[in-house]
Each structure stands twice: as C-alpha cells, then as structure tokens.
Amino acid sequence: MDTWKDSCQEALGKRANTFKELLSGNTWNLIQNRRDIKQKINNTKNEDEKKVLQEEYTSMNKEIKKSARTDKRVFYDTLATEAEQAAGKRALCTRSPELSLPRSPTKTYQSKKIGHKVESQQIGNKDTW
Q1: 21-79: per-residue pLDDT in tens?
Q2: CA atoms of 122 and 108, how far apart (whole Å)
Q3: Which of 1, 3, 34, 90 has its Cβ near the most Cβ atoms within 10 Å?
Q4: What is the pLDDT of residues 77-95, one digit of tens each?
C-alpha cells in the first residue's frame, strides 16, 4: 500500500493547499482561531468552561461570516472594476468568465397541439424556442 502511495506522489507530486483568493489573510486567521477554539471545546471536560468556549465559538463564527461577506464583496467589486477597465481596452474576454455565474439547465415541459408533453431544456430564463 505504501509503495502505491509513494509512486503516486512521485508521479503526480504532492497536492498543493490552495486557498480561495477572495478571502483575506485576516479571515483565514479568524478561521484558524475558530478551529483552535473548537479543539479546546472537544478536549474540555468541565461543563462551565465548555459553555464559555461555545459562546466564544459562536461569536467567532459570526465574526468570520461577516468578514467573509465583506471580503467577497470587495473581491467581486475589484473584479467588476477590472472588467470595466478591460472593456475600455477591449480585453474583456480575460475576466468575463469569472464574472458570469454558471447556469445549470432547467427542465420545462411544453405541450404540443396533440396534447403530449415534451421535455425541453432551457438555460436560465431564456427559452429555446
């Protein structure tokens, strides 16, 4: 089993730990602090300490969510400004795939004149007809 893992690591290399670029370093530090608090909660046997740590964990969780929301907003605002500047330079194609959200095809049923229902796919709100 170890030889198999070693040969895979040798051929493919070790997987790099990639972070989402839309989160700032401050948010990642808060996440690490939350992980540490969770570890303390799991290791604590005293109920009073556990309650205090759980309250600290919930407040940290709220802070992380707030920080992540602002980071995400800043990230997409900078992407939008870069796209606007690129549109002025006619280089929009480099940033437009990141700005557009992926659309999943939705199934709708449209009836024919005969009365049979036919399944057709449409993307977003655009009809295929």
Answers
A1: 788 889 999 999 999 999 999 999 999 999 999 999 999 999 999 999 999 999 888 88
A2: 7
A3: 34
A4: 888 888 888 777 765 555 5
> Is residue 89 helix, strand or coil?
coil
- Left, alpha or beta for 120 (phi > 0: left; psi -120 to 50: alpha)? beta
Element (H, E) at 106: strand 105-111
Locate 47 and state its tokens.
């109920």
Q: What gap in Å lies between CA 119 and CA 122, rounded to an integer? A: 10
Closest of 61, 39, 65, 60 to residue 50, by C-alpha: 39
Which residues lie across from 109 on neighbouring strands?
A: 119
Q: At a CB cut-off of 8 Å and minimum separation 6, what does 47 contact?
A: none
Where along the chain do its domains lie?
A: 17-102
- What is the C-alpha separation between 20 and 66, in angstroms, rounded? 16
